[in-house]
Design goal:
By secondary structure, this protein is α/β, with parallel strands linked by helices. The chain folds into four domains: 66 residues, GMP Synthetase, Chain A, domain 3, CATH 3.30.300; 65 residues, GMP Synthetase, Chain A, domain 3 (2-Layer Sandwich); 271 residues, Metallo-beta-lactamase, Chain A (4-Layer Sandwich), CATH 3.60.15.10; 184 residues, Rossmann fold, CATH 3.40.50.10890. The protein is built from 21 helices and 28 strands. A seven-stranded mixed beta sheet has the order 12-11-10-9-8-7-28. A hairpin with a 2-residue loop joins strand 1 and strand 2. Helix 4 packs antiparallel against helix 6 and helix 11 packs antiparallel against helix 15. The radius of gyration is 26 Å and the shape is globular.
Length: 638
Amino acid sequence: MSFRDYLSEARSIFDRLYPDNKITEIDYEGSTIVVYTKDQNLFSQRDDLARQIAQELRRRIAIRPDPSIMSDEKDADQKIRSLVPEEAGLKDLYFEPDTGEAVMEVDEPSVITNSDLIKEIKSETNWSPRIVRAPPMYSRTVKEVREYIRDVKQERKEFLHNLGIKLTTPLMPGETWIRMTALGGHREVGRSATLISTNNSRVLVDCGMININDPDQPWEEAPYLYAPEIQPFSSLDAVVLTHAHLDHSGLLPLLYKYGYEGPVYTTAPTRDLAALLQNDYVKVSHSENHKLSYESKQIRDELKHTIVLKYNETADITPDVRLTFYNAGHILGSAAVHLHIGDGLYNVVLSGDQKFEKTWLFNPAVNRFPRVETLMLESTYAGRDDYAFTRLEATNTLVDVVNRTFDRGGSVLVPVFAVGRSQEVMLVLEDAYRNKLIPENTKVYLDGMIMEATAIHAAYPEYLNRDLREAIMIKRENPFLSPIFKSIETRQQRIDVCDSPESKVILSTAGMMNGGPVLEYFKTLSPDSKNTLAFVGYQADGTLGRRIQSGANYVTLSDNGKSTKFEIKMSVENAEGFSGHSNKRELLNFIAGMQPRPQRILINHGDGNKCYEFAKLIHAKFGMEAISMKDLETTRLY
């Protein structure tokens, strides 16, 4: 059916099921049919009707109040504040006229949701309340992203309207086919990008970079974006982002610089974390006088066109592709991408980076899907020599490193990724402090973007595992707010910490030591054998971290604009087991427990021949087709 056919049928169904509907307008916003009505009962109490019509049309339905019946925002503000009980802890209240929603940020949502207050607010104001939990930690990123989305609401409304028209474009006649093209991250780690093409649409999954600390040659660090399959960018129908790490999200704004104007689908925390990391990339590039792949304007363009979905929520993203996100267990908001292509024709799952184990932060990756014919699976730690360290081993090693270093009067420097790894290490150190496994005077300094990334974690507790979620939301025992953590905000504070003779733990970005504030601490601490450099994450080939980990005695770094040789006398140790990636055993268990079992598995995201060897192992163990594609190769799926 065409765009107008869907809207006409929606109206006829409403007329049949709810004759006195007082509908004033029906329109599209993306894949959602939006119905505006002057009937208060229809928009405030008939969610059952919306669900019934959505099932008939196989389209999402949203019923909203017509703007003409909504109270003035000032009057509605006063009325809502007078109705909300003090124990709910109302922190912020703002209005979104385009959706007819009054957004209430509260400490205790259950005080409102477990009462008749929502109906009362609708009745008194003709606004639809949306209740969200107020972040227990202040996040500048979350606040600024939400404010920006509100500032551009009119542009977004027009964009979503046009997208809705595009999504109802009739399918092209002729043979149906599905192809997958490897544009980056295949038989390598970094610059992840995979294109799914059908005879009707093209969907890009991820657009990352290899090494953000050498951006003088941005196109050499990028996926194969010059390949004819993806050119011009304006012909892409959709981009799907699995998670925020820059090797998956780092060059997404570049698409908008060179002509892409379509949607980006991701989860809400991934949207915010990606904005944080991308803006930091621009900031670092400016400060180091590197060539820039894009500017902040393109990051804002990306945000303006981003459509967020929750886990297990399904949306049409092209006329013949439906998208559902599932928890991938890797970092906050990370998702496996389930693409349902055609009317029951074919199903592809791109797992992204994933962890098939409950961690300190997240539940294990989901491996049960409605249907899946082809699975794309990572292989970062699937090599023959990749030893599988446990979370308990990682914990014990790190605690032991801290105690031994403190005993000899030294300090521990831990290079970390701002998102994911740093929060896990924080939880381990907080638990060790609380249980008196490390000295009671321990101070843990956090430098780089760690505290801001942690605040974003606290803003989305529903994405954390149950134990941590309950600690933050119900018990009000937020481990990230422990007094042992001290945030470093200025260069002078960094100098003071470096000069202090006290034993301390320093968590600092970047995780592979190819830039960032970690280098300032390293330059100060490395000549003293009392200190320890503790690696808790993967060190890629060619990075400074890998060179030091491999036993380098000296490294040459820029110091006040001059190349200076630094001797490494500090102890270098590895606390392995913190990885957000599945090891080989977990990957095999993921496949073995999949329901349904895929017909084909494509292996990516692994160094060298690791992808190829793991594909051979899967074929031998499970008897299914397993392929390790190279970058620029295309596989026909159907």
